[in-house]
Amino acid sequence: MEGERARRSWVRTLTAVYGPTVLASIGFGAVIPLIAIQARALGTSVGVAAFITALTGIAQAIGDLPAGFVTDRIGEKYSIVLACLVDAVMMAVVFASHSLVLLALAVLCHGLTGSVFSLARQTYLTERIPLSWRARAMSTLGGVMRVGWFIGPLAAAAIINRWSLPAAFGFAAGMSLVAAVVTFTMPDLPGEEHGLAAIRQRSRGDHARTLSVLRANRRVLLTLGTGCLGLMLIRAVRQTIIPLWCEAHGIPAATTSLIYSMSMGCDVLLFFPGGLIMDRLGRRWVTLPAIATMSAGLLVLPLTHHAATIALVAALLGVGNGVSSGIVITLGADVSPTWGRSQFLAGWRLFADSGNAVGPLVVSAVAGAAGLPASALTVGVIGLVGTWWLSRYVPRRTDG
């Protein structure tokens, strides 16, 4: 009887943690490879299209520290509901407006809501999952997002063929709305305070000051955090450069979605094995091979000119990205303090999300000055430097 109760508790917990994540990820996964293409369809240049794609990462970096405040005050559940509702409204605006300015605004807002959503999930898993299972729990969190990013482009390809490119943004709005409703109707997670009364109690509680927490942990942020910034930079570039590379070679939007979905398929296949390796052998055995593999993929991208060869490079990038699913949030959880954990993880995510922001900006700047092939080579070299940096600071062992 006790075992059955424990099993039901874990099923409810995992459903509440991972269910809304996969729903929201399906929606935005449908439009990730289409943002640059939609911007180009609205008449802008390759450089500006890359910049608009980069707005997601910029906004995540801007929103990370405020996200720590929001999550600490109103709790995980209501933070996620709020984030999903705002995201649904903005994707609906893109669907209805066909405006470049509103597209940029929606992408910016998605970055802000994404910082709240991601921090709430990471904080919960850090506090309540045993260390021996931490990497698998975190990699599964990243993995279910990748499931959404795999399904989303497939759905987008069908929607584009049946209706139009903007219709994919309407689909994303619907998925975010469903995620908000599912989150709101689910019971509170074990260990969470209940209802709106808990929000009032949190607002009166004793909270760590964000700047004090970050100052106390500045060494690990400036060393390991900087390395994770480099890893996230490499990851973020794929979302920009693969769609733009396809567009530059005359590949249709629906085919681009399929290529991107195939890359995400590699992510889906490898996220749990990656977490298992991290828990059994250590974080280094995933971090270093992953960033080296993605760097190699970017260095050979300029040699590809057809859908088949581009798909092979996209798959290689997917392998590196998939096996390292959850590594950044796992490392953050490993080094996070007990007191001020939400604030520390917000600062940690600031470093990681700065990489998300900088990656597409590098593509935009270098592509504008020297073309897309030069941007791929530049980021590939940055990845090799990041591999060396992480080899110095990723711990060889994880002690409980």
Strand-helix topology:
Layout: H1 2-31, H2 35-41, H3 46-74, H4 76-97, H5 100-128, H6 134-162, H7 167-185, H8 195-204, H9 210-216, H10 218-248, H11 253-281, H12 284-300, H13 307-323, H14 327-335, H15 341-370, H16 372-393
Can you tag this structure with a few keywords?
400 residues; transmembrane helix; transmembrane; mainly alpha; Transporter, major facilitator family protein; Growth Hormone, Chain: A; transmembrane transporter activity; single chain; membrane; 84% helix
Overview of the structural elements:
The protein is mainly α and 400 residues long. The chain has one domain (2-393): MFS general substrate transporter like domains (Growth Hormone, Chain: A). The chain has 16 helices and no strands. It has helices at residues 2-31, 35-41, 46-74, 76-97, 100-128, 134-162, 167-185, 195-204, 210-216, 218-248, 253-281, 284-300, 307-323, 327-335, 341-370, 372-393. Helix 3 (46-74) packs across helix 5 (100-128). It is globular, with a radius of gyration of 20 Å. It starts with a helix and ends in a 7-residue tail after the last helix. The model is unreliable at 194-202 (pLDDT under 50). GO terms for molecular function: transmembrane transporter activity. Keywords: Cell membrane, Membrane, Transmembrane, Transmembrane helix, Transport. Residues 13-398 form the Major facilitator superfamily (MFS) profile domain. It is a multi-pass membrane protein. One of its GO terms (cellular component) is plasma membrane.
> Radius of gyration, Cα only, in angstroms?
20 Å
| Structural class designation | mainly alpha
What general form does the structure show? Answer: globular
What is the domain total for the residues?
1
Unreliable stretches (pLDDT < 50, length at least 5) are 194-202
CATH class bucket: Mainly Alpha
User: Terminal Cα separation, in Å?
Assistant: 31 Å
Q: Which architecture name does CATH use?
A: Up-down Bundle
Q: Beta-sheet strand percentage?
A: under 5%
Organism: Propionibacterium acidifaciens F0233
InterPro entries: MFS, MFS_dom, MFS_trans_sf, MFS_Transporters, Sugar_transporter_CS
GO molecular function, one term: transmembrane transporter activity
Transmembrane segments: 21-39, 45-66, 78-96, 102-120, 141-160, 166-186, 220-238, 258-278, 285-304, 310-336, 357-390
